Each structure stands twice: as structure tokens, then as C-alpha cells.
Amino acid sequence: MLIESQAYCRENLLQDLYAAELDERQEQRLQRDLEQQLRKRIEARLGIERQLVEIECRRKQQEDEDRRFKEDQLKLWAERDRLDQLSNEKRRLKLMEHRRAIQELLEERRQRRADEVKELMQMQSLFEQEEKRREEIIEEERIKLLKEHVTALLGFLPPGVLRESDREHLPLPKDK
């Protein structure tokens, strides 16, 4: 009888150790998943910040290019006018025509730039929507797993795993 109770105690102890080992592995896996998720978020934010810096640099560079382009075009057209030896009135009209043409070219470039920025913003919005949906799916799966296994794991879960908002989804005892 004593041997049987010792064997039974030993078996219970082994089962408890095995359950504790499984819980520890699961906790480590959860910790790794959280760390990976955090790393991905940080990388995404850094990527967005880099993109914003690049956009600002490109905008400044584009403004400089526009200014130089405008100056170069005015010089070119002025030189052509001098070579043609146009009268003052014709030269003034030609200069206005050149400025109008340059302004149209600048408007086209600005529009292309605005389209690029709009496309970047749409890509960012899609990325944020995808990330939000991913987080919703993760939260749904977390709640689903908790609903299925919370009663078996209740004594083994470390503090912070269960949130106050989980109480409405789970059959947990209410605090008094």
C-alpha cells in the first residue's frame, strides 16, 4: 500500500513537472512572439520616418531643381532672343511667352510630384490598415485561445497575460 501511494505521488509529481515545463515553454514562445511583434512595429515606424525624411529631402531638391531650371530656361530664351535681334516689343512678348511655357513645365512637374506623394500616402494607409487588421486577428486568436484553455491555465498564467477587458469574454471569477 505504501509503495503504491509513493508511486502515485511520484507520478503526480512528474505530471506536475511536465505541466510546468509546458507552461514555461508556452510563456517563452509568447514572449518571443511579443518581442518579434515589437521589433516589426519599430522597424515599420523607422521605415516610415525614413520615408518622410526622404520625401522632405526630395521636395527641397525638387525646389532647387525647379529654381535652377527656371533660371536656365530664362537664360536660354534670352540668348536666343538676342541672337535673333528682335525688337524690344517682340523681345518682351517672347519673354512673356517663354515665362508662360516655363510656368506650364513647372506645373507639370509639381503635379507629378503631388501624384507621387499621394501614392506614397496611399501605400502608407494600406500598410497601416494591414497592420491594424493583423493586430485584430492576433487579438481574436488570443481571446479564442484564452476561451478554450483559460480554466486549465488559470493558476499558471503569469501576471499581465490576462487583461481587465478579457473578463467579458472569459468565464473568470469576478473580483469582489
What do these coordinates show?
- The chain has 176 residues and is mainly α.
- The protein has two helices and no strands.
- 85% of the residues lie in helices and 0% in strands.
Give a quick summary of the entry:
Residues 20-140 form a coiled coil. This protein is mostly helical and 176 residues long. It has two helices and no strands.
The ordered string of helix (H) and strand (E) elements is HH
Q: How many angstroms does the end-to-end distance come to?
A: 44 Å
Counted by DSSP, the helix tally is 2
Largest sheet: none
Strand coverage percent: under 5%
What radius of gyration results from the CA coordinates?
A: 35 Å
* Poorly predicted sequence stretches spanning 5 or more consecutive residues: none
| Number of E-type strands | 0
Mean pLDDT: 85
Principal-axis shape equals: rod-shaped
Secondary structure category: mainly alpha
Helix content: over 70%
Domain Trichohyalin-plectin-homology: 10-159
Main location: cytoplasm
Keywords: Cell projection, Cilium, Coiled coil, Cytoplasm, Cytoskeleton, Flagellum, Meiosis, Nucleus
InterPro entries: MNS1 (IPR026504), TPH_dom (IPR043597)
Detail the topology: elements first, then pairings:
Layout lengths: L1 H83 L3 H66 L23
Features:
MNS1; single chain; mainly alpha; 176 residues
